Automatic annotation (TrEMBL):
It comes from the Bacteria. The keyword Mitochondrion does not apply. Keywords: Membrane, Transmembrane, Transmembrane helix. InterPro entries: NnrS. The chain crosses the membrane at residues 21-41, 61-83, 95-113, 119-137, 149-168, 174-199, 211-231, 237-254, 266-288, 300-321, 333-351, 357-376. Pfam families: NnrS. This is NnrS family protein.
Length: 390
């Protein structure tokens, strides 16, 4: 089902409000810089003690903003844009999109300032994800595209987890882990579709047939892991599931021509991030098995910084070019940005117990996403170069 777009009406909309990827990619990237710098400043004692009296800081805020304000928000921007390609039904734009961004921003400011009653940002964030579920789910159901129906429960889960993260202090760590693994699950689904496709297309190679054991088996195991964490089943079970997922994803990505990716930064950045995601599964297996419990934080940040942060940077860089009619070539110093994210992940995994490791990890993130903002702010705020809509 394809709806005809009124070009005159679309051209009356400022470019930033023409597709969901535009404001959410830019906003999530910019907010991640502010949130990380603020967190590091508090962690290192670089700000006055009175600062914490008016800022709702702490580890809960840090985890919440990186999971929901950054990662889940990029998911909203990506899926909200992809739905138009998948269904043929135009994505939200104009005032509906402005309203969605307004809810997101209200939650960010509300969580940041301690003087704001907590129920206000909680309500804004829950409505944000529920509205996204309504807007996206309606389009998928309209064309009966059941393959992509995972979008609906994902948005509903983000809404529920965002609320629980603040309202259930005794379960905050487990809720944060569930949110992290939910983003990982979405990456396994979407990344498994686009990374081999992008790779084969760029290298002019045939895309290999998918193995059901790797594809369906991996998704089933990921769902089981989410359930095991949600139900607080023994961590030895988590460890075996993580080990199995690591092996399956390792075999999966070895089939994506990994030795030939180095000709294109927009390719190797995706692959390296996926490798770090796989590393996260293996480290998690060690930590959850009890063999190396001190590596629990390293596993979480292998997922969060290396897998999610790195892959998001690579994806939004590529998607922003493709959906604005530009050549798929990393501009300027963006290869340095991709490398900085990988080094940030390695610093956070292997060096972070030392204060310098935390600083190095934050610096790598700031450099990577800072360069993204430098090169992609004009891309996201200006109309497509080919004159088409979107």
């Amino acid at each position: 089902m394809m709806q005809i777009v009124d070009r005159s009406k679309e051209e009356a909309i400022a470019p930033i409000w023409r597709m969901p990827f535009r404001p959410f990619f830019w906003g999530a990237a910019a907010w991640s810089l502010l949130a990380l710098i603020l967190w590091q400043a508090q962690l290192s004692g670089w700000v006055a003690p009175a600062f914490s009296d008016w800022v709702r800081g702490g580890i809960t805020w840090h985890a919440h903003e990186m999971l929901f304000a950054f990662a889940a928000t990029v998911v909203v921007g990506f899926l909200g844009t992809a739905i138009q390609t998948w269904t043929g039904v135009p994505s939200p734009k104009g005032w509906p999109l402005i309203g969605l961004v307004g809810l997101w921003l209200a939650a960010r400011l509300g969580y940041l300032f301690a003087a704001v009653p907590l129920w206000l940002p909680l309500s804004a964030e829950a409505i944000f994800f529920l509205t996204a579920a309504l807007l996206f789910g309606r389009r998928i159901l309209l064309v009966k595209q059941w393959r992509n129906l995972f979008v609906l429960p994902a948005m509903l889960a983000f809404a529920a987890l965002a609320l629980c993260h603040w309202l259930l202090p005794a379960y905050q760590a487990r809720v944060a882990l569930l949110a992290l693994l939910l983003v990982v699950a979405i990456i396994l689904v979407v990344g498994g579709r686009v990374i081999p496709f992008f790779t084969a297309r760029r290298l002019q190679l045939p895309q290999r047939d998918k193995w059901a054991l790797l594809e369906i088996g991996g998704h089933v195991l990921m769902v089981v892991l989410l359930l095991a964490v949600a139900l607080n089943l023994p961590q030895t079970l988590w460890a075996w599931l993580a080990l199995a997922l690591g092996v399956l994803q390792l075999v999966r990505m070895l089939r994506w021509h990994p030795t030939r990716i180095w000709v294109e930064p927009l390719l190797w950045s995706l692959h390296i991030s996926y490798w770090l995601l796989v590393l996260g599964f293996f480290i998690a297996a060690l930590a959850w098995s009890g063999l190396a419990p001190a590596w629990h934080s390293a596993a979480l940040h292998a997922f969060a910084v290396g897998g999610i942060g790195g892959l998001i940077l690579a994806m939004i860089s590529r998607v922003s070019l493709g959906h604005t009619g530009r050549q798929l070539q990393a501009p300027g110093l963006m290869p340095l940005a991709f490398a900085a994210l990988a080094l940030s992940a390695l610093a956070r995994i292997f060096w972070a117990p030392a204060p310098a490791g935390f600083v190095a990890a934050v610096a790598g993130w700031v450099l990577g996403y800072g360069l993204f903002l430098v090169y992609y702010t004009p891309v996201l705020f200006r109309a497509r170069v080919d004159g088409q809509g979107g």
